[in-house]
């Protein structure tokens, strides 16, 4: 039976499969990327990757979000749960949305051990998939959202 928890976006699921492969390889078990994708699909209650991928395509887009909606995701790699404070379709960039979030718990956006900077309010621009085009230096999206 499928877990009712909202699904992560496609990039987050693929990243999960890469991390799973790395972890299994560290333990001496080699699996291909497609096998890792199948394992991730099973972890989320789907029979296979194609079924999971199709379910992602059937999700409502950001246009279904409104102030007060609950979302989960990651900001600069830090997981969060949040309430949407505002969302606006960008007329200058069709298919993109400016979003403002109030995080349930502040996240530390600095990776240094000797310094911290916590954020509770986050603003960003996301595409229809809930992922920002802007990336960190290691290639991870600044903002990744999931909703149901």
Describe it.
With about 150 residues, the protein is of the alpha+beta class. It contains three helices and five strands; from the N terminus they run αααβββββ. Strands 4-3-2-1-5 form a five-stranded antiparallel β-sheet, with no helix packed on it. A hairpin with a 2-residue loop joins β1 (about 70-75) and β2 (about 80-90).
Task: Note the topology.
Blueprint: H1 10-26, H2 33-43, H3 49-57, E1 70-75, E2 78-89, E3 97-108, E4 118-126, E5 143-146
Antiparallel strand pairs: 1-2, 1-5, 2-3, 3-4
Helix pairs in contact: 1-2
Helical content band: 25-40%
Strand order of the main beta sheet, please? Answer: 4-3-2-1-5
- In percent terms, what proportion of residues is strand? 25-35%
User: Biggest sheet, open or closed, and with what strands and sense?
Assistant: 5 strands, antiparallel
Order of helices and strands: HHHEEEEE
- Total beta-strand segments: 5
Q: Structural class of the helices, strands and pairings?
A: alpha+beta
End-to-end gap? 17 Å
Mean pLDDT: 85
Runs in which pLDDT lies below 50 for 5 or more consecutive residues are none
Principal-axes shape call? globular
Number of contiguous helices: 3
Specify Rg, calculated over alpha carbons. 16 Å
